[in-house]
Amino acid sequence: MKDRLNEPMLSKVCEMITEHMGLRFSEGKRNMLTQNLALAAGEFGFAHLEEFIHWLLSTSLKKDQTEILSSYLTISETFFWREPHVFSAFTDFIMPALIASKKKEDKNIRIWSAGCSTGEEPYSLAIALRRTILNIKDWNITILATDINPTVLRKAVMGIYGQWSFRNCPDWLKTGYFHDLGEGKYQVLPEIRDMVTFANLNLTDDVFPSLINNIYAMDIIFCRNVLMYFTDEWIHRISERFFKTLTNDSWFVVSSSELSSQFFPQFTPVNFQGAILYRKSNKKQPLSEKVLSPVVDKNKSFPVTPESLIISESTSDYSTLRSSIIFSNAITTVATNKEEPDAFSDTQLPSVSIVEIKDLANQGYLMEALSLCNKELETDKLSIRLYLIRASILQELGKIGEAIASLKQVIYLDFNFIMGHFDLGNLYIRQENLKDAKKYFTNALNLLSTCADDDILPASEGLSAKYIREIILASIQKHLVL
Fold first, then answer.
1. Which residues is 145 bridged to in the sheet?
2. Residue closest to 65 by CA, chosen among 303, 306, 311, 308
3. Between residues 163 and 74, which one has the greater pLDDT?
4. 281, 225, 241: which is closest to 98 by C-alpha?
């Protein structure tokens, strides 16, 4: 295969990737880009790189095609307990304060590892929580780990690592939290593995904060060695979404090479011994004497995959997904031109609308969001969108019976609404009511038989009829509901 491109064509490819994926390839990285594109060309069925590039520049890539391309452009290099000073700050300062505050509330801790690669970071976080929280079984812990590359996520789910992943980490980590499989291979213990939910996520998609993909009201976000690969414009956009995804008095962690007051002006930098972390807070924090300056490495590249899909890989149970299927994307597709507030108080709520309901829910004000949703339904009893939002909020509150009732209103208003039947099937499985799960899954399959495989279903978070059908069949196989 021809492995060289002329400069004009290579420049067009770089422009396309920057425009659609938010990535920047410097001249020093273009040889590497050419090599990776040559490898991708073979998987796409092209014998010559130039033919592949012509096709790439003239084609609107589908979801699976974007995933394939991203897997070839991804650089995945990580290891356990990376930047030990950050983990010291996390275990010695951040977590004790968070635990103390949460003991007075609901004992919920929500952490997001964005750009998790092969899983070393989120598993390190799970281990850190095990070592920090007494009686951890009494806590509701969420560790969401997302990446742009489905290939590395598959490795992360397996949780099997070689010696190279343990370089520079403390000895107790490997001996205390991994099974020795022999031949230099180690597998993370089940109790650690089950703490992490892996997901495929496109950071450049405007899909967070949102209940839809369980990315809302986070206490801590780790996003290390990821943003440096994006253009300045995308760094600003993504960091602003991170800010909105965090609760107040929460933390945002980037790598030491990404520290920049220019890109994260909404956060307050806080100096710990050997590490600087960012805080979202209304209170002024003591600042480091060190002046933070932009040191983003523009010579590296990092691609982005398509729409997010939350998958709990520890159980591989597609029927119990909390987010991308059960929750309607109606709450994220509402356009508004006004500025959305970061938080609301009990005495000063914004005017009622779907946008405000979404904002409240995304920030963890679930009871307030439910109250507003019910109020809206009093005047608009035919709104499928409101019933879908109501069902998502009720499920988050653990009120599965009421969520089912809300979804039944959806299919009463429109029996052909496929995702309503699909969501009901999933909720009935959670109740271990296999008879009704069978009924609604059968309805969904019958309705899907009228759809083309590539049809994108309403309120499916951009998923195709084929994909929904495969999820149903996987659930049927696991739960034997048919």
1. 113, 198
2. 306
3. 163
4. 281
| Contact of 147 with 200, CB cutoff 8 Å | yes
CA nearest to 447, candidates 414, 409, 482: 414
Integer CA distances (angstroms), 302 to 145, 147, 299, in order: 17, 11, 10
Q: What are phi and psi of 309, to 5 degrees?
A: -145, 110
What pLDDT band is residue 294 in, cutting at 50, 70 and 90?
Answer: very low
Q: CA angle at residue 173 from 172 to 176, to 5 degrees?
A: 70
Give the torsion sign (CA, 145, 132, 220, 93).
negative
322 or 40: which carries more pLDDT confidence?
Answer: 40
Q: Answer whether 0.70 is exceeded by the pTM.
A: no
Q: How many CB atoms lie within 10 A of CB 310?
A: 24
pLDDT of residue 396: 80
Contact predicate 357/388, CB 8 Å: no
Residues 6+ apart with CB under 8 A from 103: none
R_g (Cα) of the chain, nearest Å: 23
Q: How many CA atoms lie within 13 A of 479 on its CB side?
A: 29
Distance CA 174, CA 396 (A): 35
Rounded mean pLDDT of 50-66?
87
Q: In this model, does residue 161 exceed pLDDT 90?
A: yes
Alpha-helical regions (H) of 363-432: 366-379, 384-396, 400-413, 418-430
Residue keyed to tokens 């650690």: 192
**Please, what is the average pLDDT of the chain?**
80
Q: How confident is the model at residue 295 (pLDDT cuts 50, 70, 90)?
A: very low
Question: Which residue has better confidence, 103 or 446?
Answer: 446
Cα separation, 268 vs 262, whole angstroms: 12
Which residues are CB-neighbours of 197 under 8 A, at least 6 positions away?
142, 143, 144, 145, 214, 310, 311, 312, 313, 314
DSSP bridge pairs for 111: 143, 220
Helix axes 418-430, 434-448, angle to 10 degrees: 160
Phi and psi angles of residue 14, each rounded to the nearest 5 degrees, phi first: -60, -40
Of 269, 114, 364, 244, whose CA–CA distance to 125 is shortest? Answer: 114
- Which range has highest mean pLDDT (326-330, 334-338, 391-395)? 391-395
